Amino acid sequence: MAYIGSLDQGTSSTRFIVFDGAGKIVGQHQLEHTQFLPQAGWVEHDAAEIWKRTEDVIAGALKAARISGSDLVAIGITNQRETTVVWDKTTGAPLSHAIVWQDTRTSDFLNSLSETSKASITHKTGLAIAPYFSGSKMRWLIKNVPAVQDAINDGRALMGTVDSWLLWNLSGGPRGGVHFTDVTNASRTLLMNLETLQWDEELLKLFEIPRSVLPTIKSSSEIYAKTDPSGAFGSAVPISGIVGDQQAAMVGQACFERGESKTTYGTGNFALLNTGTEIVRSKNGLLTTVCFKFGEEPARYALEGSVAVTGSAIQWLRDQLQIISSAPDIEGLAKSVPDNGGVYFVPAFSGLFAPYWRNDARGVVVGLTRAATKAHLARAALEAICYQTRDVLDAMSADSGVKLPEMRVDGGITANALCMQMQSDIMGVDVVRPLVIETTALGAAYAAGLAVGFFKDVAELRSKWQEGRRWSAVKTSELATSGYVQWKKAIERTLNWVE
Ligand code: ADP
């Protein structure tokens, strides 16, 4: 039997999953790593710890699958996006902690850019001017960490997103490791031109980043290198897929064609819509990003809508209000009442993101009467997840002219059947969850398998997608009509709150 390995390096943990040719999981191992929060708004990871966890989860998963590295035909990498690593290529040691995507330390610099620069960056990269992306993080490391500046002067420094750090280490590190990244990760840096798919000289100058420290941009599916036989695999396995996590979920969900989309429900929600080879620039607050590029084929692009607070609102009910003791408890509590009793909850804890982009917004609970209970609030929280998702998907339809025929979903919250039914009612389309819900890891395995011929083409991958569960809209549901009108009124109540 031949297998494919998928390395899934996320914000809170690292996993290695071994898939068989049918896409079935035959073994996996997962380990968390430390979150460093040195100051308000700062979030860091230790890239050396992440690499150590990576070696451990590879060994653990091979053991669980009862195979050795030589049984793998290829491995793929998927990763938390935007997080930025800098290291010394002679020692292999990081020169600073990695700056995580959630880190906001570079807001002031971005605010100080001229309106002309901002417009140029947005046009070239498809992104918003936000500390979320890697470019300003790289600039910060160069300007503020003397060891980074010294290493650049000596020609010893390498930088990149987490995928490039892992690829370099897997392929031998200081002993011949390759320094590459893929287009999906590069499209999250504010440094790559969406049209040329290369680092943009003007943007490098603006962020003051020397080209020599950056990885070469490759496709998402090709043989980049082989693993170092003296490492965790004990053999030379082709590394042949790299895809950022949200784009990997698109591949894992077989959203290969224009008009196909998926929504991942986790701490926040991420909806992506494949726009084919066309770069669609949003007029409605969405991001434009590379969806994937398989080998020599042209890149496919996507519109992306990110909702900051969805699952984390459920955590807030659990941890701060303590009206539930675990996240899944929300379903039973919400089901204990037939409707929201007129209560609406907008969890705009740190302002509103797509499609509103209002920093002055804060969370509200509105429509309270003496009869309101915690069950109504629980229901309102689940509805909020679905209404926010509708806001983003409506923006996508407006930008692309594509009306979604149905919604493909994945992520932790999709375990909540009530929430998925609400989503279907609110959107008025079917909501479909696949049988294999590890879509992110599966997507990286697909990209890797395509490059080595283990999978023939995307048609074969599409045929592997299997429906797990489907929710159909109740056409008479008021959630989609009067409920959505009330939701929009609740959104208005959040605005102009902080000066
Ligand atoms: P991430 O990948 O962002 O860490 P996951 O896909 O693991 O997220 O989903 C975890 C999130 O989903 C948490 O915020 C949690 O509150 C929420 N969650 C998990 N199970 C449920 C459930 N049954 N109902 C509602 N929310 C849930």
Q: What ligands can be seen in this structure?
A: adenosine-5'-diphosphate
Q: C-alpha Rg, in Å?
A: 22 Å
General shape: globular
Number of strands: 23
> Which blocks of ≥5 consecutive residues have pLDDT under 50?
none
Helix and strand content put the structural class at alpha+beta
Beta fraction: 15-25%
- The termini sit apart by 62 Å
Lateral strand order in the biggest sheet: 17-18-16-15-21-22-23
User: How can the largest sheet be summarized?
Assistant: 7 strands, mixed
Kindly state the percentage of residues in helix.
Answer: 25-40%
Rounded average pLDDT: 95
Per DSSP, the total helix count is 16
What does this structure look like?
The mean pLDDT is 95. The chain is globular, with a radius of gyration of 22 Å. By secondary structure, it is of the alpha+beta class. A hairpin with a 3-residue loop joins strand 1 and strand 2. Helix content is 34%, strand content 23%. The strands form seven sheets. It has a seven-stranded mixed beta sheet. Helix 9 crosses helix 14 (439-451) and helix 12 packs across helix 13 (417-427). The chain has 16 helices and 23 strands.
